[in-house]
What does this fold into?
Amino acid sequence: MQQDVPVPPIYEWSNRAGGKPLDPQLDGLVRDIIGKVADKWTMLILEALNDHGTLRFTDVGRKVGEISQKMLTKTLRQMEADGLVHRTVHPVIPPHVDYSLTPMGRSLGGAFCGVWLWVEEHHAAIEASRKAFAQRNGAA
Amino acid sequence: MQQDVPVPPIYEWSNRAGGKPLDPQLDGLVRDIIGKVADKWTMLILEALNDHGTLRFTDVGRKVGEISQKMLTKTLRQMEADGLVHRTVHPVIPPHVDYSLTPMGRSLGGAFCGVWLWVEEHHAAIEASRKAFAQRNGAA
DNA sequence: CTGGATCCGGTTTGATACTG
DNA sequence: CAGTATCAAACCGGATCCAG
It folds into this structure.
């Protein structure tokens, strides 16, 4: 494990699934959450809302970029069920629905911050690695 | 590895996609990386390797849990191409292949640490939120 | 043991059309 | 505008066979 991590008292990540027997039920839940949270659209929507505070349905899609309204709806609903986003329906015509992050959603955004920074930092290295890999294999 | 990228001080997350015009190409790459990195299996494998240092093919699958051999192979290959894992083939019989994280892979593990902690912290709240949501909707 | 290749069924996703 | 309904395509996973 990494030893240069100055995070002794807190729950160590190596502790989580190290060799420790977790409740199979809890493990299942955690796994399920990971599966949903570690989702491309979830991350992008999370970021869009974290950035802009409150957005309407269509605007979320615009900020996210290339997303079908089906996935937008589905992901938004999932996030709402998980308590990550708050959905406000204004009963007017035409319909007006606002989405914003809940405090929990914002905290998840903060947790993902490290990942975003990582991507920013390493995208060049990844690109290089991919090229090298393609050459090693594809162009044997 | 990573280079002299002109990443000023600390890239603020709200700064990343705030209203700043990024290179569309760079944005596409970042989006692609997010799509791969924010993957259930990638995260799980990353954790397994981060935990155990070096694992053989079959052992990675065992540590990850419920993963098909197809997905294991596929994800491992992708991670290798991206420079996250190092694949060592020992030319013996029977074959022996070791997988371990590269420095970049370990750093990604560190970046995800915050997400793991977040899940540990909030899984109960999520569960509660889901129940409440189900009741608001399903059991109207 | 470590995979690649393939068939096959179930799930997810995307594009499009339609509604209130 | 904010979705839902529908159909087709892509993907995932299991099982199996095969090769080194």
